[in-house]
TrEMBL record:
It comes from Novilysobacter luteus. It holds the Pfam family VanY. InterPro entries: DD-CPase-like, VanY-like_core_dom, VanY/YodJ_core_dom, Zn_M74/Hedgehog-like. CDD domains: LD-carboxypeptidase. This is D-alanyl-D-alanine carboxypeptidase-like core domain-containing protein. Residues 140-265 form the D-alanyl-D-alanine carboxypeptidase-like core domain.
């Protein structure tokens, strides 16, 4: 699979990352990653599970065979978007597994979606590398949104405006982790829900949404609206298919987020 575009292959429990984008946490992992084609990464905590070497799979954790989701991940090693015929861009979606389990962990149920008007959002089966975010992390987006983001960013640059990605795709498990970390800092669920959609309901799950910033501005702060970057987005983003999802007084109970932008095909937006 070498020579193929950088692609994250997604399964319910495990992601398959191109080896060169991961940072090793030990010398043992570093040696394995240096020779791997892909690395199996547990979604709920980012733990490296195994390296896909030319001679076979090298476990990086004990009892790999008992790892939840390992069979689906191994099946995914046999399938890769790089094997697709040229020109085929369709990206499937993962089933909405364990949704109730994640909501119950936060004391929520199906009424959350009804109350907020937020739709359930499935994760894509694979995502394309759209560059890197402000923190030098790989930025994963749906393949069409990745292309649109690169065009948008380049157009802003030609006008002397620097746009930085703050974050893109997030899994359901990652979204749950955001809530758990904020609760550990003493925040209540209601306060968190004003800023972060519940797991399963965030636009970030789709790979079509990203948070945008600009150098010198703190990430995900309302002050972004006073920057030339925001003014440029307001005037130009729609031409590239991007719209701001959460304006002031939006009906979803989410705070005003001038940094959060969602991509949809331009023709779909016109319907």
């Amino acid at each position: 699979m070498r020579g193929q575009p950088d692609i994250l292959v997604n399964t319910a429990e495990i992601e398959l990352w191109p080896h060169g984008l991961l940072r090793a946490r030990s010398n043992h992992d570093a040696r394995a990653l240096a020779r791997a084609r892909h690395v199996l990464r547990r979604k709920r905590d980012g733990r490296y599970l195994a390296a896909d070497l030319p001679e076979g799979l090298l476990p990086l954790v004990p009892r790999l065979a008992r790892e939840p989701g390992i069979d689906a991940a191994l099946d995914a090693l046999e399938w890769h978007p790089g094997h697709r015929r040229p020109g085929i861009e369709r990206v499937g979606e993962l089933p909405l597994d364990r949704l109730h389990e994640r909501l119950e962990a936060l004391g929520l149920d199906d009424s959350y979606g009804e109350r907020t008007g937020l739709a359930l959002v499935a994760e894509p089966e694979w995502l394309a590398l759209a560059g890197f975010d402000r923190f030098r992390r790989p930025l994963w987006l749906h393949t069409d949104a990745a292309r649109a983001w690169r065009h948008l960013q380049a157009a802003a640059g030609r006008d002397g405006v620097v746009l930085e990605a703050i974050s893109g795709y997030r899994s359901h498990d990652y979204q749950l982790g955001i809530f758990e970390r904020k609760r550990a800092r003493g925040l209540g669920i209601a306060d968190i829900l004003a800023v972060n959609a519940a797991p399963g309901y965030s636009e970030h799950h789709s790979g079509f949404a990203l948070d945008v910033g600009t150098p010198g501005e703190p990430p995900a702060e309302e002050t972004f609206e006073s920057t030339p970057a925001f003014a440029w987005l307001t005037n130009n983003a729609s031409g590239y298919g991007f719209t701001m999802s959460y304006p002031r007084d939006n009906p979803h109970g989410i705070v005003y987020e001038p940094w959060h932008w969602h991509w949809a095909p331009v023709d779909a937006m016109a319907d």
